[in-house]
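Quick one:
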Amino acid sequence: MKKDKNIIINEALFSFKLQLQVGLITFKEIQDWADQQLLIDNNDIVILDICFLTNEDEVRDYINDFFRYDVNIDIEKVALKVFKQYFESKMSKLLDSQLNDHILNLKLLADYLFDINYRLGEATLDGYITGYDDDITGAQKGGRSITPQEIYVKLYQYLQNWISRFS
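Output:
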């Protein structure tokens, strides 16, 4: 069964919303996408709107406003793709100075993935990320018997296994 054009565009916009929030896409890339979409359908009002936005803040505001209303898409499916993309392109296998940014971005995306673990009666992904973050912080302060790097490796492995399991 072929997907409705509006659902495809809405899924792309929601993906862009998440990708902008975690630094996976630029304003220019979204504009390039919109330009390509215009070649397919130059009457789509959403695409036309995006083409006339002039900076990242306008795009971010437009997309956020767009999703204030119920939009018929599988948010969890889109968020899972972006989570996987973030993990594969941004997460280092070794603890680095970007840990706090990674934790914030992972938790932001995990908020959209709450139901995956909930349906199975398991602790939430967000809960695991927070727990590992707390353990790393404790180890950095000398309050753990293992190093922050060892805990980070466990977090990385947990996320890698979680993604394999659910994507």
